[in-house]
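Could you join me in thinking about how sequence relates to backbone shape in a protein? Would you write everything just below, so we can both look at the same thing?
***
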Amino acid sequence: MKVRPWRILASEHMLDCRVFSVERTQSQSPIDASVHEFYRLRCVDWAQIVPVTDDDEIVMVRQYRHGSDELSLEIPAGLIDEGETPAEAAQRECLEETGYAANELEPLGVLRPNPALFVNRLHAFATYGVKPSATIANTATEQTEVELVPIDQLAGLMLQGEIDHALDTAVLWRFLHVNS
């Protein structure tokens, strides 16, 4: 039997949570036409960037995450603002969170953060030769501290769980593969 998409019969906005909204759908099975209820999280697309210095270090940020209630070591990332391209968002996030200016971007691909729940996509980039050029410009709800991580330590930090953000590890493994 060939897998086929389900047909969405109805969709209802349930809750607005500022950075995402919750939607309930009634969807029909392509196998037996039965109808089932599903929930999806709607969010704008995200952008992430792997900024690399001339010394082959990744510019990362350590920040507190409310979901895990822990500090997390991550690459710069964020929501794509209205009217912004994914590349522009990646450059903006890099400058805001680290103070490092991103130059020409190399696309690392597009990922689905969690296709079981989220409808958005993650656009990943790398940039090389970054240098500090501004002060960090965090919003009132975030604080970041820059950490420079040598490229040759990335795999070990991911395998040890020091870098454990799933989306970051997916992008960083892609980065390591492209640069191997």
